[in-house]
Fold this protein.
Amino acid sequence: MDTKHYISSDLLSINQIKEIISQDLKLELSEESRANIVNCRKYLDDKLKLNENLFME
């Protein structure tokens, strides 16, 4: 039996949440979640860099 629940973009039902809690599963980010975080960070960094250039003119 898995001892981890991988956090992803999938929706969880109340029953799934109860199961995670009752089985004391450890939470870990899925590869999909990690990739989403990296992509969001890159997007924000690019936007900030663009805004910095606007203020420098």
The longest helix spans residues 31-56. The chain has a mean pLDDT of 91.
